């Protein structure tokens, strides 16, 4: 057997968090409040939030686009990592969770860096007409549109900018041979296409539910 990524059992996963998660009471509170919602599993894992923040700093991102914001956790993590003149444009649908996101951003003092545009993301993206104007695009909304979101991300990213897709392992459903779900089929299509897409440098990380990193060439 060749060297491969570890399976994390509960004890090892907890160890990983214990030795690496840099939490704050505010972020822990947002996770706890979101955990009470029926859609709690939509939120990125805490270690993914920390990883996104690291990516923001690694590539010196100033301008971020997020597609899929929910109660605002990933946006909060990235906003805290931005320089003071940095900004995030968040796309989501209208919902009760918009107010939750805004209240935590306000409390964290990053509200002025974040614009939340409500409506189908494809409509918001169609209005963005400056190619190359973003450093990082985080994609975490409706999976059926992932392949289309990739095209928008590549149009809107600068060369060297990063598109990050969440849920690319889809709790293992990517293994289904003939999936009924269009979401599953779209993620499978995206994963297969990215492997051979010459427009990007690429890596799929088994972090959270699977995260793909695509650096625009
Ligand atoms: C997985 S959640 C995002 C989680 C978020 N990144 C976080 O860390 O908490 C997906 C979000 O995408 C939004 N969404 C789904 N379809 C959408 C669409 N067509 N346009 C915009 N937002 C959409 C949902 O309302 C939901 O809030």
Automatic annotation (TrEMBL):
<dbReference type="Pfam" id="PF01596">
    <property type="entry name" value="Methyltransf_3"/>
</dbReference>
<dbReference type="InterPro" id="IPR029063">
    <property type="entry name" value="SAM-dependent_MTases_sf"/>
</dbReference>
<keyword id="KW-0949">S-adenosyl-L-methionine</keyword>
<dbReference type="InterPro" id="IPR050362">
    <property type="entry name" value="Cation-dep_OMT"/>
</dbReference>
<keyword id="KW-0489">Methyltransferase</keyword>
<keyword id="KW-0808">Transferase</keyword>
<dbReference type="GO" id="GO:0032259">
    <property type="term" value="P:methylation"/>
</dbReference>
<dbReference type="GO" id="GO:0008168">
    <property type="term" value="F:methyltransferase activity"/>
</dbReference>
<dbReference type="InterPro" id="IPR002935">
    <property type="entry name" value="SAM_O-MeTrfase"/>
</dbReference>
<protein>
    <submittedName>
        <fullName>Class I SAM-dependent methyltransferase</fullName>
    </submittedName>
</protein>
């Amino acid at each position: 057997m060749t060297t491969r990524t570890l399976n994390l059992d509960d004890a090892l996963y907890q160890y990983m968090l214990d030795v690496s998660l840099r939490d704050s009471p505010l972020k822990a509170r947002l996770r706890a409040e979101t955990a009470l919602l029926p859609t709690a599993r939509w939120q990125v894992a805490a270690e993914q939030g920390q990883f996104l923040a690291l990516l923001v700093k690694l590539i010196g991102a100033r301008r971020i686009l997020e597609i899929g914001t929910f109660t605002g956790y990933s946006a909060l993590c990235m906003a805290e990592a931005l320089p003071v003149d940095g900004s995030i444009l968040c796309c989501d649908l209208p919902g009760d969770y918009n107010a939750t996101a805004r209240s935590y951003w306000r409390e964290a003092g990053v509200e002025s860096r974040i614009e939340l545009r409500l409506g189908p993301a494809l409509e918001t993206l169609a209005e963005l007409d400056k190619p190359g104007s973003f450093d990082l695009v985080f994609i975490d909304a409706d999976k059926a549109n992932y392949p289309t979101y990739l095209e928008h991300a590549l149009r809107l990213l600068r060369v060297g900018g990063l598109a990050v897709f969440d849920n690319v392992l889809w709790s293992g459903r990517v293994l289904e041979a003939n999936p009924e779900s269009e979401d599953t089929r779209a993620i499978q299509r995206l994963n297969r296409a990215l492997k051979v897409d010459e427009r990007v440098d690429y890596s799929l990380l088994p972090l959270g539910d699977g995260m793909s990193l695509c650096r625009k060439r």
